[in-house]
Amino acid sequence: MLGEYRISGRRASDIAASVERGVGSGDLQPGQLLPPMRELAAELGVNPNTVAAAYRTLRERGVIETAGRRGSRVRPRPVTTPRDAVRIEAPPGVRDVGEGNPDPALLPPLGPALAAAADHDGGRPVMYGEPPLDRDFARLARAALDEDGVPAGPMGVASGALDAIERVLAAHLRPGDAVAVEDPGWGSVFDLVPALGLRAVPVGVDDEGPLPGDVERALRDGARAVIVTARAQNPTGAAVSAARAARLREVLGRHRDVLLVEDDHGHGFVDVPLHPLSGATDRWAFVRSVAKAYGPDLRVAPFTGDPVTVDRVLGRLRLGPGWVSRVLQRAVVHLWETGAVDRAAVGRAYGERRDALVRALAARGVQAHGRSGMNVWVPVADETGAVARMLQAGWAVAPGARFRLSSPPGIRLTVSGLTAADIEPVAEAVAAATGPVPARSSR
Questions:
Q1: By the 8 A CB rule, do 18 and 50 touch?
Q2: What is the rounded distance in angstroms from the CA atom of residue 316 to the CA atom of residue 162?
Q3: What's the mean per-residue pLDDT of the chain?
Q4: Dmax over Cα atoms in the chain, in whole Å?
Q5: In sequence order, which ranges of 275-396 are alpha helices (DSSP H)?
Q6: Which of 36, 110, 250, 322 is 20 to 30 Å from 95 at the Cα level?
Q7: CA-based end-to-end distance of the chain
Q8: Which DSSP category does 285 fall into?
Q9: Angle at CA 279, nearest 5°, toward 276 and 285?
Q10: pTM
Q11: Residue 113 phi/psi, 5° resolution?
C-alpha cells in the first residue's frame, strides 16, 4: 500500500510527523491510500485510538482526507507540498513571463515614504499599548472604500491579503468546514484552505467572475464560506461585473449565514471599476492589498467587515503579532497622500499590454482570458507539452496546475515585463505551443 515507506511512531504526534515527512519527501504521493487505523495500530503496537488521533491531526493540517469506508488518503495537493513548487525556472536566455510580479518600473521608490514615516510626529517611537491602527491610514483607507461603495464597517490592517483572509476564515470556521473557492484561482488560497483543516469546494469562473450557479450549488451543499476575487483575478484576470455582482448578491442573500470574503488585491493597478458584494451576508470581510501597486515587500492590507468578524480578527491579532508596523502604515499614508502612484496610468499600462496580447492571440485563433490585472490565462489541451514547448521557444510560463483544482488545463502569462515589441513574438510562440483546445464549458 505504501511501497517502501514505513510509518513510524508510538505517540499520535510522532505518527502524524512520520506521515508528514513521507509526504514532504515525496515517498507518500498525493492520492496514496494510508493503512486502515486498526491495521496500522497493530503494526506499530499502539492503541487504535492513538492512530485515530494522528489521522485526525493530519486531516486538520490538510495533509490527508478521509472518505468513510473508502479510507484515508494523502490529499491531491497536501499543504506539505505548496503550489509554488509547481513552477518553471527560467534558464539563461529564456524570458520569464510566469512569475506574476508587477513591473518594477511602475512601482514607486519607498525610500522617501519610509523616511517620512520614521520622521512622523517628530520621530517619536511607537510604544506598546498604542492603537494598532494609524489614524490617517484608517481614514484614507476608509475613504477609498466609501468611494467604491463598500459598506461601512470597522477597519483593521493585516500583513498582506492572504494573512487577512486566513484570519477571517479562522475567526468563523472549524476544521472540516467547506469553503467555496474560485477554480481556476489563486494557488495560495488552495494551499491555505486545507492548511486550516478546511475543505475546498471549486466554483467555476468566467471573465465576469464566479459563476452564480456554481456558487449556489456549493452553498446549498453546505459550504460555510465563499472567497471571491473582486477584480484582477489570478490567474484569469476576471473582474466581477455589475450584472454578475447583482446575481451573486441574490445568491448570497439566500444564504445570509455564509461568511463572504472579498479580495480586492487589484486596487491601485486595475482599469475596471469595483462592484462589491459585501453586505449581502451577515458575516463578511473586504480585503485590500498594496503589494501589487506599491511593492510586494510592503506587507500592508487594510480590511473591513461586519463588527463581529473584525473584532474577532483584531482580538486574535493582539495575541500574536500585536499590530502591523505603524512605520509601514505611515509609509503607505505618505504614498497615498503624495500620489506616488498614478493609479489610472498604471491601470492603462497593464491594460494596454494585456489587451494587446489577448488580441494577438485571438488573431492566431488562440482563446485567452484577461479582462483586468496583469495576467492572461490560456486554456490548453496539453499543459505539460505547452509549458515545455514555450520553454524551447524561449519563454517560461506558469503551469496551470498551480491554479487549478478540477478546472481544465491552462497556462498563465504575466504581461508586466512585456514591451510592445514582445507581443507578437510571444503570441506566435503560444500559438505554436498550444494547438487546439476543447470548447469552454458555459456551465
A1: no
A2: 16
A3: 91
A4: 68
A5: 291-294, 307-319, 326-338, 343-363, 383-392
A6: 110
A7: 38
A8: E
A9: 75
A10: 0.84
A11: -70, -40
